[in-house]
Amino acid sequence: MEGPRPGLESLSSAIPASPFTLPSPMPRAPKRLHPADADAAYAAAQCVVETHRRITDYLRVGLTLAEVDAFVARTLDDLKCRSCFLGYKIPKTPAFPSHACLSVNDCIVHGTVGSYTAPLKRGDLLKVDIGVWHKGW
Q1: Structural domain of 76
Q2: Rounded CA separation 135/117 (Å)
Q3: Is 69 within a domain?
Q4: What are the CB-based long-range contacts (under 8 Å, 24+) for 106-111?
């Protein structure tokens, strides 16, 4: 095979850099966590697991996403953690308005309380993504 066609090798330099790219090189994650950090990370993950468990018992036809999000907020407060989504902001965009990403039907991911205002009905597919801050994790 011969080399690339003339002019194609410079194509990538013509594409502007994304404002969302991370600085290069990406920071390396630690290979081993200190046992206290591992315990704290595990505790944070368990807050997410417990919130999903509770929301499974709570969900029913007729709820709105605002009610579901308020339930998530109360649950996180009860578990002494907070949402890492609420208020999340990247430059030149509004802050994320929900405690959880609540995506209904055709909305694949990152839905908010305002993205679907009708009450949930039988057959709706609700995807719930929860992220927490707990003990530094």
Answers
A1: 35-133
A2: 34
A3: yes
A4: 111/65
Q: How many domains does the chain have?
A: 1
CATH number at residue 102: 3.90.230.10
Contacts of 121 (CB under 8 A, 6+ apart): 61, 62
Residue 16 lies in a domain: no
Written as six digits, the tokens of 31 are 């290979």
Structure tokens at 14: 């013509």
Calpha distance 114→42 (Å, rounded):
32
pLDDT by residue for the chain (137 residues), tens digit each? 455 555 555 555 555 666 665 566 666 665 677 888 889 999 999 999 999 999 999 999 999 999 999 999 999 999 999 999 999 999 999 999 999 999 999 999 999 999 999 999 999 999 999 999 998 88
23 in a structural domain: no
